[in-house]
Amino acid sequence: MTSDFADALVSGRPLVLDGGMSNQLESAGHDLSDGLWSARLLAEEPEAIGEAHLAYFEAGADVAITASYQATFEGFARHGVGRHAASELMALSVESAREAARRARTDRRLWVAASAGPYGAMLADGSEYRGRYGLGAGELERFHRPRLEVLAAARPDVLALETVPDTEEAAALLRAVRHLGVPAWLSYTVAGDRTRAGQPLEEAFALAADADEVIAVGVNCCAPEDVAGAVETAARVTGKPVVVYPNSGEAWDAEARAWRGRSSFAAGEVRGWRAAGARLVGGCCRVGPEAIRSVAAALTPG
């Protein structure tokens, strides 16, 4: 699929993604402890979402990922939000990022990626790090397609099919994204050289090799140490540009709903990722604006 964003991936310097939305909101004092996570603020304090996007743009990010990762019809319904209002909030996630791009003090072209997290994100129990939900491919496709239609209608530059834990859900997402008229990237959450559900990455990336809608493949929400091998495998198996945005290196304790361990995210590693084929590079959970500033500096020629 051709688009301005797809063209940008194969020309010029690699694009810098933003960092974690949740940690940026939490650092500003917002409580994200309920099941909607950052999506709750789309309804209650949308200006906070815009300020988070702006902080990353001004730190050097070229691409903002919207606050719609955990925004689903089912999740909103559990919190008393009807279907029409939920659609409006999903669309607002894209407009909030667009408005932040307009406010950013830069002459770079800025882009918006509409986030669609996995089914497990809606459950808010950590199951996005396990996959294998016990649902069939048709059920997963029926879950994803309606919100992808809403996000696509809001005209982001790209759909971010992110933090996908297994090939079953990836296959459903690839069907759900067909004919929406917006390109997508497919990004797995991984452990070592396998998806979180244990499938080899060669098998996982191969699903997207012939998907015209998918313009980049890669990994996110993983340990920084898992990135280099995944970049090489994704580039070799698919021939597509590679997207990478790992966590800080700390580990999420789903039962305690807290991060454990120490950060191992090092911006200096991005030159190696770029050399192996990465064209979209940023950070995920616990990676903030200063780290993204360092990533941007590492990817700037000279």
What characteristics describe this protein?
302 residues, alpha/beta, TIM Barrel, 8-stranded parallel beta sheet, two-stranded antiparallel sheet, globular, S-adenosylmethionine-homocysteine S-methyltransferase activity
Tell me what the structure shows.
Helices cover 42% and strands 16% of the residues. It is globular. 55% of the residues are buried. It has a single domain, classed as Homocysteine-binding-like domain (TIM Barrel). The strands form 3 sheets. The chain has an 8-stranded parallel sheet. A two-stranded antiparallel ribbon has the order 6-7. Strands 10-11 form a two-stranded antiparallel sheet. Helix 4 runs parallel beside helix 6 (83-103). The protein has helices at 4-9, 21-27, 40-44, 46-59, 73-78, 83-103, 119-123, 137-153, 167-176, 201-206, 227-238, 270-276, 289-299, and strands at 15-16, 63-65, 111-116, 158-164, 184-188, 190-191, 194-195, 214-220, 242-245, 251-253, 258-260, 278-281. By secondary structure, the chain is α/β, with parallel strands linked by helices.
Q: Superfamily at the CATH H level?
A: Homocysteine-binding-like domain
Radius of gyration: 17 Å
Shape: globular
* Main sheet strand line-up: 1-12-9-8-5-4-3-2
Give the class from helix and strand content and strand pairing: alpha/beta
CATH secondary-structure class: Alpha Beta
Question: What is the CATH architecture annotation?
Answer: Alpha-Beta Barrel
Number of strands: 12
- When the domains are counted, the total is 1
Main beta-sheet annotation: 8 strands, parallel
Q: Could you please say which CATH topology applies here?
A: TIM Barrel
Strand content: 15-25%
SSE ordering: HEHHHEHHEHHEHEEEHEHEEEHEH
| Share in helix | 40-55%
**What distance separates the N and C termini?**
32 Å
